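New here. Your pick:
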Amino acid sequence: MVKVTLVHSEWCHFCPAAKSLWRDLKDKYGFEYNEVELDTPEGKELAQKFHIRSIPTTIIDDEVAFVGVPDREQASNVVT
């Protein structure tokens, strides 16, 4: 099963759109999904591990797949 992790922050203006997109796709396709706040220990660990410099960043199966809000079609293609 595909595992999607969205690294986001409360102060990010683009993150709500990314959250909405991934939540909708999760409901439609049923993959594993997790949201991680950048300013938490887990978020800081992911930022260091994946060299995250911009958010939202989407990690899919342990690789950075998207930086920013992905196009719905491109995101759908990755999780199906």
Q: What stands out?
A: The chain is about 40% helix and 25% strand. Residues 3-79 form a domain with the Glutaredoxin fold (CATH 3.40.30.10). The mean pLDDT is 97. The helical segments are 15-29, 41-50, 72-79.
